[in-house]
Amino acid sequence: MPTPETSGATTLTPAEFTARLRALSPRYWDRHPFHLRLHEGRLGKHELQLWAANRWYYQQAIPRKDAAILANCPDVEVRRVWRERIVWHDGGGPGDDRPGEGGVENWLRLAEAVGLTREEVLDERHVLPGVRFAVDAYVTFARTRPWVEAVASGLTEMFSRGLMARRLVDMREHYPWIAEEGFAYFTARLEVVADEGKSTVDIVVRNCRTREQQEAAVAALAFKCDVLRAVLDAVDYYS
């Protein structure tokens, strides 16, 4: 339903709308105190393990979130683009050159590289209640909100490339005991995140045709930023 703030309001131009979305960058989790300590080399092994195990819970939820978007999206062209994201995270099927290789698998390798066993990550024994609540809320959002809002929530991609590039440099410098294969997630993600971010912006701008839809998209992105920070809040509290 239209709100008093959006009812009858002028639709933003694509440039204005995009600027509103990008203006949320200060809410992204790159400025979180836990991430600052991570990049400064001030985390101990236990803290890195707790972070890796809980971040894995978020990573494994992403393809389920994307599957929810596919289920709700009536636009075949968007579905064709979006289904590739599930493959990137889950890996290919038996007929592909690298079956099972994907972002989730690469994050498991990072968890192993910081000293966790695959079993203890997969059985979720280290997943904190706050992390589980925030991540599950994100998947529920994607399932229950209009598909374009769920797509807009993923626009944190706009802010992530610089963070990942810096993370590779800082972690290699400050945590040299982590084997190089543990960084496979970040090296692979850097190759796709810039293009994905632009594609997502284009989809959101094209499909938000009213001011109400635009404001809902901005709110969706703000919600996703809050989800990410809630994940780190929980890890920071228990580390």
Describe what this molecule looks like in 3D.
The chain has one domain: Heme oxygenase-like (Heme Oxygenase, Chain A, Up-down Bundle). Helix content is 69%, strand content 0%. It has helices spanning 14-22, 33-39, 45-72, 76-90, 103-113, 118-122, 129-144, 147-153, 157-174, 184-190, 193-207, 211-238. α3 (45-72) packs antiparallel against α4 and α7 runs antiparallel to α8 (147-153). The chain is globular. The model has no long low-confidence stretch (mean pLDDT 93).
Keywords:
239 residues; Heme Oxygenase, Chain A; 69% helix; globular
What is the element layout, followed by pairings?
Layout: H1 14-22, H2 33-39, H3 45-72, H4 76-90, H5 103-113, H6 118-122, H7 129-144, H8 147-153, H9 157-174, H10 184-190, H11 193-207, H12 211-238
Helix pairs in contact: 3-4, 3-5, 3-7, 3-8, 3-12, 5-10, 7-8, 7-12, 8-11, 8-12, 9-10, 9-11
Short description:
The protein is mainly alpha-helical and 239 residues long.
Total DSSP helices: 12
Contiguous uncertain segments of 5+ residues: none
Count of all domains: 1
The shape is: globular
CATH fold name: Heme Oxygenase, Chain A
Q: What is the fourth-level CATH superfamily?
A: Heme oxygenase-like
Which value, in Å, is the CA radius of gyration? 18 Å
Percent range of helical residues: 55-70%
CATH class: Mainly Alpha
Quantity of strands, as a count: 0
Please outline the major beta sheet.
Answer: none
Q: What is the strand content?
A: under 5%
Q: Note the run of SSEs as H and E.
A: HHHHHHHHHHHH
> Separation of termini?
42 Å
Q: Roughly what is the average pLDDT, rounded to an integer?
A: 93
- By CATH, the architecture is named Up-down Bundle
Judged by helices, strands and strand pairing, the structural class is mainly alpha
EC number: 1.3.3.11
Pathway: Cofactor biosynthesis; pyrroloquinoline quinone biosynthesis; Cofactor biosynthesis; thiamine diphosphate biosynthesis
Function: Ring cyclization and eight-electron oxidation of 3a-(2-amino-2-carboxyethyl)-4,5-dioxo-4,5,6,7,8,9-hexahydroquinoline-7,9-dicarboxylic-acid to PQQ.
Domain Thiaminase-2/PQQC: 20-233
